[in-house]
Amino acid sequence: MNSLPHGFHALVIGASGTIGAAFVDLLGNSPRCASVQGLHRRSMPPIDFADEHSVAEAARVLGGSRRYHLIINAAGILHNEGMMPEKRLADLNYPQMQATFQANTFGPALVMRHFVPLLAGERAIMAMLSAKVGSIGDNRLGGWYSYRASKAALNMLVRTAAIEVARTRKDSVLVALHPGTVNSRLSQPFRGETIGRPAQDAAADMLRVIDALAPADSGSFRSYNGAELPW
User: What is the pTM of this model?
Assistant: First the structure.
């Protein structure tokens, strides 16, 4: 992360997940990184996207000590024990859509609301993990209704917030990042162990993309290889 000042401070939300933990590990081993804080449901302070107050409170607690040069949100959901991505319109239901949007859209939106003020006044980057399947222009297979829609909505929130933030924070960058297929719990039901790459590799790829972003790139949707993805 050579574009960030020596002794930069980083924050990873969703640090208990496979990719989030990889980010924490890589940043913690970077000689240029002075500190990396990981947040999740059981951290101190805790953060839970099902609890709006916890997002605001985590920002309040952390904001009293320092400003951050890098904030990454790696939290999100594709499936859990009680639900899998919808393949057909007939599969759509309120509980699944609400849970998916809460984790992938509403929670990250609150992170932007409460944590953008914690960005350092110099060069600072906030990255939201999105997904290529959230691209409307690239959707050729259909299915995965809630997940696709929640990530498309997240992309719009990042784009919109970037426009606002640029008015007062000229050196800040907001970006939506596609991590690719990673060997993780999220991808295991979809041959993730076979076709996915290690989380450390994915996190390293994304950090390289983040490091190369200029303020003019704020509000963009990028792949782990740096390519700009269609909306």
Answer: 0.93
Residue pair 91/97 in contact by the 8 Å Cβ criterion: no
Q: Average pLDDT in the 46-50 region? A: 97
Chain mean pLDDT for the chain: 94
- Residue 69 CB neighbour total at 10 angstroms: 24
Give the tens place of pLDDT for each residue, 134-173.
999 999 999 999 999 999 999 999 999 999 999 999 999 9
Q: How does DSSP assign the chain, residue by residue?
A: -TTSPTTEEEEEESTTSHHHHHHHHHHHT-TTEEEEEEE-TTSSS---TT-HHHHHHHHHHHHTT--BSEEEE----S-BTTB----SGGG--HHHHHHHHIIIIIHHHHHHHHHGGGB-SSSEEEEEE--GGG-STT--S---HHHHHHHHHHHHHHHHHHHHHHHH-TTEEEEEEE--SBSSTTTGGGTHHHHPBPHHHHHHHHHHHHHH--GGGTTEEEETTSPBPP-
Structure tokens that stand for 196 in this block: 């996915």
Cβ–Cβ under 8 Å, residues 80 and 25: no
What gap in Å lies between CA 130 and CA 221, rounded to an integer?
Answer: 8
Torsion of CA 27, 29, 31, 37, to 10 degrees: 40
Give 90-108 pLDDT, tens digit per residue.
999 999 999 999 999 999 9
Question: What distances in angstroms separate CA 83 from CA 29, 131, 135, 150, one per listed residue?
Answer: 36, 19, 22, 15
Whether pLDDT at 55 is above 70: yes
